[in-house]
Structures are given as structure tokens and as C-alpha cells.
Specification:
Shape: globular
Number of helices: 9
Bound molecules: threonylcarbamoyladenylate, magnesium ion
Number of strands: 15
CATH topology of the largest domain: DHBP synthase
Helix content: 25-40%
Largest sheet: 11 strands, mixed
Distance between the termini: 31 Å
Number of domains: 2
CATH class of the largest domain: Alpha Beta
């Protein structure tokens, strides 16, 4: 990806929140302080911005992201909170707790940000700058930790600069993170699940709930609890998917990539192109939406053209392989 000029501002700069909100609205990437760790923020409803975020981090897969919101009303617009979730929200928000909840029916968060899941992770961070920025921006902000994939999470702006300068638009320096450890993630399922231990202790949460938290099975990798591929609800099209297509058969829909025209493409039941110009960031942004569209046309199969195994292509191919199982 091409180098960007990364702007640096202090969080107490009176113009900082408005600048950050403006960058987000333009599809830019903004590293900002939260009380847990620094987050790398993007407009949650802008699939291309989200794709750029994965690329900037060098994430090998589309691990679902946490949607950050400024207040409980905004949380209710993107997720369904049951009694238990409302209780946790009232007790711990704003704060280092993330709730994994069913997506609201009219949730506008891009499918790519939730890795095509029916659930969404939501949190109100307890940081005055983050709250000001979201108030001015006015929509949900997805934010993974602002580090290169594989590195430890950043707790100072210097960590963020070392990892991401030249790859993102703006870094807001708010000094060292108060919590310095990511949020606790609770899955609000039939029984509440501790998906990731973090900034709020188990005992506090159990006390607020009046019940015990269940744990994940031991074989789950700690850093990526409940990976999308392990979830029964992970999105896979109902229509069979055929990969590496070099020609099209009768009754098939075509998921194309790049400018090449496939033999038989003229008789496709439906056609969608991930990126006509062969751009992997654009392709990532379109992937889940296009799969949904083609799944709905009643084709016998979805034939998918090859996508190069480089950059975001690795993650795109990972999801395509899952869709083809
Ligand atoms: O403290 C934090 O949570 C920081 C700050 C910036 O808010 N963010 C953070 O994000 O740690 P990230 O992307 O590094 O970790 C998010 C975790 C991932 O392990 C992801 O798998 C999980 O949340 N996650 C997100 N959505 C999920 C979902 N729908 N179901 C299960 N897990 C989910
Ligand atoms: Mg992280």
C-alpha cells in the first residue's frame, strides 16, 4: 500500500476531535487513545475504509472488529441488548467491557467489519477524547488495537507511530493508556461466555450479573477467541461455491475478479465483480456483500475466479475457501 502522510495531534489540541471526525467521515484511518489500548479507527459503515484498515494492520484474516459507540442509544441502533446485556452496559459502560450481541435488524455496520457474522462486538470506551471524537463523527467506529498484526497492543502514541506511521492518516496522542490491556469480551449468548479476559475482572462481572460466566473450551486460541470459522452462525452462502473457475457452466452465477472476461460469462445467471481493476482492498470491501447478492439469485452454483494470494488476497481466499466447504 502506498505511503500516506500521517498527521500527529495531541488529544488536548482543541481541533483534534473535529479533525479526527473529518478523517473518519472521509474514509480515513485514525489512531486514537482509549482507556484500554490505542485503537485504529475507521467508519464502521464504510466497507472500503474497513478493508483499508485490515490492510494497514497487515491482518492475515478478517478477524471481526469491535464497534465503538458514544452512548447506549447508539449501541441499541446496531445491536440487540437483552436484559443481561442492559445490566452489564449500565454497570460498566463507558469502560473496558465489550459485549458480543446479536446484530440489530437495521444495523448499518459493514459485513466486512463483523466478518459476516450475525453478531457484533460493541463497546463504549471510557476516554474523553474518544467520546468527543465519536460525538462529532456521529456514527459507529470500528477499532482494533492500533498495531501491526502480530505485535503487542500499543499503549502509547509512540508505539502506534513505530507500527503504523505512513500507513494511516492521523495519530492522536493522548498519553499512555490508563488500562493498558484490552477490554474484557463477554458473549451474551444463552449462557454468558467469557471470550477474552481483559480490563474488567471476572468477579466484578459475575457480581453484576448474579451468575457465573462460562469459559471457552480449552483449545480456543487466546488471542482470537471464537474465530469466525468456528462459529456455527458464520456466513456461508446456501448456494454451492466453486473456486478457481476458468469458464462458466449453465446455471451458474459468476463472482469475478479483475478485468478478464471468462468464457461463458455472457450466460451467467448473475454477475458481480469484486474489483474490475483487480484491487484487493476494493475486493475485500465487496466480498461479503457480493456473496450475499449472488446467493439470492437462485443459481445452481457460484463460480469464483481466482484471487491472487497476496496482501488482503490471503484473507479473501480464506473466506472463499470457507464459503466453498
Ligand atoms: O480494548 C479493546 O478492546 C481494544 C480497544 C481499541 O477498544 N480493541 C481491541 O480490538 O482489542 P481487537 O480487534 O484487537 O480485538 C477484538 C477481539 C478479537 O479477538 C475478535 O475476534 C473479537 O474481538 N470479536 C469481535 N467481534 C466478535 C464477534 N462478533 N464474535 C466473537 N468475537 C468477536
Ligand atoms: Mg489486537
Amino acid at each position: 500500500m502506498s505511503a500516506l502522510l500521517t498527521l500527529d495531534l495531541a488529544s488536548h489540541d482543541p481541533a483534534a476531535a473535529a479533525q479526527a471526525a473529518r478523517h473518519l467521515a472521509l474514509g480515513g484511518l485514525v489512531a486514537f487513545p482509549t482507556e484500554t489500548v490505542y485503537g485504529l479507527g475507521a467508519d464502521a459503515t464504510n466497507a472500503e475504509a474497513v478493508a483499508r484498515l485490515y490492510a494497514a494492520k497487515g491482518r492475515p484474516s478478517f478477524n471481526p472488529l469491535i464497534a465503538h459507540v458514544g452512548d447506549i442509544a447508539a449501541a441499541r441502533r446496531i445491536a440487540r441488548l437483552d436484559t443481561r446485556a442492559e445490566r452489564l452496559a449500565a454497570r460498566f459502560w463507558p469502560g473496558p467491557l465489550t459485549l458480543v450481541l446479536p446484530k440489530a435488524p437495521r444495523c448499518e455496520v459493514a459485513d466486512l467489519a463483523t466478518a459476516g457474522l450475525d453478531t457484533i462486538a460493541v463497546r463504549i470506551p471510557a476516554h474523553p477524547f474518544a467520546l468527543r471524537m465519536m460525538e462529532q463523527f456521529g456514527g459507529p467506529v470500528v477499532a482494533p488495537s492500533a498495531n501491526q498484526s502480530g505485535h503487542v497492543s500499543p499503549t502509547t502514541a509512540a508505539h502506534v507511530r513505530a507500527d503504523l506511521r505512513g500507513r494511516i492518516d492521523l495519530i492522536i496522542d493522548g498519553g499512555p493508556s490508563a488500562v493498558g490491556l484490552e477490554s474484557t469480551i463477554i458473549g451474551c449468548f444463552e449462557t454468558p461466555l467469557l471470550l477474552r479476559p481483559g480490563g474488567v475482572g471476572r468477579a466484578e462481572i459475575e457480581a453484576a450479573l448474579g451468575e457465573k460466566l462460562s469459559d471457552l473450551p480449552a483449545e480456543q486460541p487466546g488471542d482470537q477467541p471464537l474465530a469466525p470459522g468456528l462459529l456455527a452462525s458464520h456466513y456461508a452462502p446456501r448456494t454451492p461455491v466453486r473456486l478457481q473457475a476458468t469458464e462458466l457452466a449453465d446455471g451458474e452465477a459468476l463472482l469475478a475478479f479483475g478485468p478478464a472476461v471468462l468464457p461463458g460469462a455472457d450466460k451467467a445467471v448473475a454477475l458481480a465483480n469484486l474489483s474490475e481493476r483487480g484491487d484487493l482492498v476494493e475486493a475485500a470491501a465487496h466480498l461479503f456483500g457480493h456473496l450475499r447478492t449472488l446467493d439470492a439469485v437462485g443459481a445452481s452454483r457460484i463460480a469464483v475466479m481466482a484471487v491472487p494470494e497476496m496482501g488482503l488476497g490471503e484473507a479473501i481466499n480464506d473466506r472463499l475457501r470457507r464459503a466453498a466447504i
